């Protein structure tokens, strides 16, 4: 089964597709949207995520949940990005699972407030994938996909 991990952002979207059976990364990328007007950001996300879904046929998508902070404008843009990504999945009958960043960090490293470098080291040790010099968004997407697979394989996960 292919799992699609997504770290949505207002200017970058981390994307990672993992073959659960072979534990091979099929595609890892940071989609760069900096400088694009809003309508082009969302249509680019929709087309690109849709194309990856059509090529790799993931059955499940793991996406980072939104944590509210100080920058409301940025949070609104991220939530809209999440909506576009989730709609792409729903239109293709892909099950969507959501994880808070602290859950991903905790399940990856055992500490919910781990630094990005700690997550990268753990993923490198667990998967053998050389993560440098990836953007944090891409490694976060990998961590979300990886944790989803581990959780699903260790217990029943309901969407």
UniProtKB/TrEMBL annotation:
Q: What class of enzyme is it?
A: hydrolase
Q: Offer an example of a GO molecular function term for this protein.
A: DNA binding
What InterPro entries does the annotation carry?
RNaseH-like_sf, RNaseH_sf, X-over_junc_endoDNase_RuvC
EC number(s) reported in the record: 3.1.22.4
Please verify whether the record's keywords include DNA-binding. Answer: yes
Q: Which UniProt keywords apply?
A: Cytoplasm, DNA damage, DNA recombination, DNA repair, DNA-binding, Endonuclease, Hydrolase, Magnesium, Metal-binding, Nuclease
Q: Which GO terms describe its biological process?
A: DNA recombination; DNA repair
Gene3D superfamilies cross-referenced by the UniProt entry: Ribonuclease H-like superfamily/Ribonuclease H
- Could you list the residue ranges forming a coiled coil in this record? none
* Protein family according to the UniProt entry: Belongs to the RuvC family.
The record's PANTHER family line, in alphabetical order, gives: CROSSOVER JUNCTION ENDODEOXYRIBONUCLEASE RUVC (PTHR30194:SF3)
User: What's the protein name?
Assistant: Crossover junction endodeoxyribonuclease RuvC (Hollidayjunction nuclease ruvC) (Holliday junction resolvase ruvC)
Which organism is the protein's source?
Coprothermobacter proteolyticus (strain ATCC 35245 / DSM 5265 / OCM 4 / BT)
């Amino acid at each position: 089964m292919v799992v699609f991990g997504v770290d949505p952002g207002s200017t970058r979207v981390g994307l990672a597709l993992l073959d659960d059976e072979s534990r091979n990364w099929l595609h890892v990328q940071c989609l760069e949207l900096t400088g694009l007007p809003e309508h082009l950001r969302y249509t680019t996300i929709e087309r690109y995520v849709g194309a990856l879904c059509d090529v790799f046929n993931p059955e499940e998508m793991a996406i980072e949940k939104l944590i509210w902070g100080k920058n409301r404008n940025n949070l609104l843009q991220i939530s809209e990005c999440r909506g576009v990504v989730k709609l792409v999945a729903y239109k293709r009958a892909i099950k969507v699972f959501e994880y808070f960043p602290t859950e991903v960090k905790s399940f990856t490293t055992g500490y919910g407030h781990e630094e990005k470098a700690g997550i990268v080291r753990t993923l490198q040790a667990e998967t053998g994938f050389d993560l440098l010099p990836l953007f944090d968004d891409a490694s976060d997407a990998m961590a979300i996909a990886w944790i989803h697979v581990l959780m699903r394989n260790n217990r029943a996960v309901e969407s």
